[in-house]
């Protein structure tokens, strides 16, 4: 997302015009968004690390628009996993984007 897009979003959220949005507002918004998203990736990794501790799986199907559309989210999850897992434990671990995983999970749960 470029700076002009962020300015437009901020202007819309604040019910004002883009002329009233400063460059420093864009920097703060970008930094805050990145911090929140990195935290989300770390929380996701914590849950996945727990699953990996109890299973022998190496491929993890991940559903969700944040995973599939954010260019750094999968990388940040893997970085966080590497902080809590050894190189040996991480060998062969792959995150695989899965579309419509919620429906599949619901079907499996109800079966």
Question: What is the secondary structure topology, with strand pairs?
Answer:
Layout: H1 3-13, H2 23-54, E1 59-62, H3 65-69, H4 73-84, H5 87-90, E2 94-97, H6 101-110
Parallel strand pairs: 1-2
Structure write-up:
The protein has helices spanning 3-13, 23-54, 65-69, 73-84, 87-90, 101-110; strands at residues 59-62, 94-97. By secondary structure, it is mainly α. The mean pLDDT is 88. 9% of the residues are buried. A two-stranded parallel ribbon has the order 1-2. The protein is built from six helices and two strands.
Helix segment tally: 6
The helix/strand class is: mainly alpha
From the spread of the alpha carbons, the general shape counts as elongated
Assess the beta-strand content as a share of residues.
Answer: 5-15%
Task: Spell out the key features of this protein.
111 residues, mainly alpha, two-stranded parallel ribbon, 6 helices, 2 strands, 67% helix, elongated
In short:
The protein is mainly alpha-helical and 111 residues long.
């Amino acid at each position: 997302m470029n700076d002009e897009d962020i300015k437009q979003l901020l202007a819309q959220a604040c019910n004002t015009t883009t002329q009233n949005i400063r460059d420093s507002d864009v920097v703060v918004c970008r930094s805050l968004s990145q911090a929140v998203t990195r935290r989300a990736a770390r929380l996701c990794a914590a849950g996945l690390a727990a699953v990996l501790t109890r299973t022998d799986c190496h491929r993890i199907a991940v559903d969700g628009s944040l995973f599939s559309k954010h260019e750094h989210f999968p990388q940040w999850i893997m970085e966080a996993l590497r902080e809590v897992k050894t190189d040996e434990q991480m060998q062969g671990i792959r995150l695989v984007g899965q579309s419509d995983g919620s429906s599949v999970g619901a079907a499996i749960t109800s079966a």
